[in-house]
Amino acid sequence: MTATMTDAPPPAAPKAPGAPQRSGRSPGLTLMIVAGALLLLAAVRVITGANQLDSAGQVAAALALAVPIGLAGLAGLWSERAGVVNIGLEGMMILGTFGAGWIGWQSSPWLGLLCGIGFGVLGGLVHAVATVTFGVDHIVSGVAVNLLALGATQYLAKLFFAGGTAAEAGGNPKQSPPADSLPDVTLPGLSDALVSVEKHHWFLVSDLAGIIGGLITNLSVVTILAVLLFVASWWLLWRTPFGLRLRSCGENPTAAESLGVNVYRYKYAAVAVSGGLAGLGGAFLALVTSHTYLEGQTGGRGYIGLAAMIFGNWRPGGLAMGAGLFGYSDALQLRNGGVTVHALLLLLVVLLALLAGWKLYKKALWQGVISAVMAALVLVWYLLTDEVPSDFVGATPYVVTLLVLSLSAQRLRMPKADGMRYRKGQGK
Prior knowledge:
Strands 1-2 form a two-stranded antiparallel sheet. 45% of the residues are buried. The chain has helices spanning 27-48, 56-81, 89-106, 109-133, 138-161, 164-168, 188-198, 205-216, 221-239, 241-251, 253-258, 263-289, 301-311, 316-335, 337-361, 365-384, 390-394, 396-408; strands at 184-185, 219-220. The chain is globular. It is an all-alpha fold.
């Protein structure tokens, strides 16, 4: 019998801890890219007069919108680094929103937060049982988790929120009663000073003031927790023996098993953590963004989180950048509408022109020409219009998602055994 592609183990074994590994961008190069991006953004702001491009309010809104996307992406990173594709992130986030809203209004938002994480872990374990134990196709299982989570939460919302005390407190079949707010953090003296500097609209100085001010004003404790989780995930997965074993399960589980790694255990742990992180992202939406559970609250953020993870090349740093980009584009269209998005077209022209030059330098002729043509078309659009149509403004986050994935697809390197079916004993 011929083995299917999903059953075939990858040919290469994971590298030993002391073996040289290809590193990502150096810190110096990363700082140069960030500095260049800030200068470009400041120049576009001055040229177009769109001061909302990097205001403190815009940055704060972008951060709030980026956190659930980033947590969903981090959840996908944990799962896929262990070799389990997790399309069910959206469903696990839905479970997190319901759990947080259900317990949050009855007791305290802290318990609601824990319940949201727990509901997400439950969804992750369902996915792990299907894919790891029973060998169900990962995509099929993930879609099933999404459908089950949606149906279960709709039923439970009607059961718990449509009558009795919940209805009297403001609940209905599609919404839970409001929960108390979680605390937030502001640095009063520094925050006020930065607001004052931002109002002068000085080149680069006011831009930096607006960005830093947005990052330190009314900062939710869950946002701080999310940042710590990114750092902790990087340290655990890339700096500890536990992380090496877990990643070996996603690169070559057969070789990992032959070296004594309990592959099933690590896959279960990774998918459970993945569900908990996705549930935390859902709890953020229910307790921080709106203070209540709402049907359809996730709005596809689980899928956008997967896109951010792919953009970040299955690494926490790149994932954080991707989540920030998607959160920024979402905040831009929600807060400022067509005028500010129109100013962003000029930034897109410059980026496409730089990409065209880079592709031509690398002798990728067709890609360079296509990028140059796109840059010219967007420039014509910018020069002939004063505002982006409202229909296109609403699609901004999704257009950014498609553009980013299409431009970054050639440098991606997923775990070699990601999505492959594994059976215990293959390494013996």
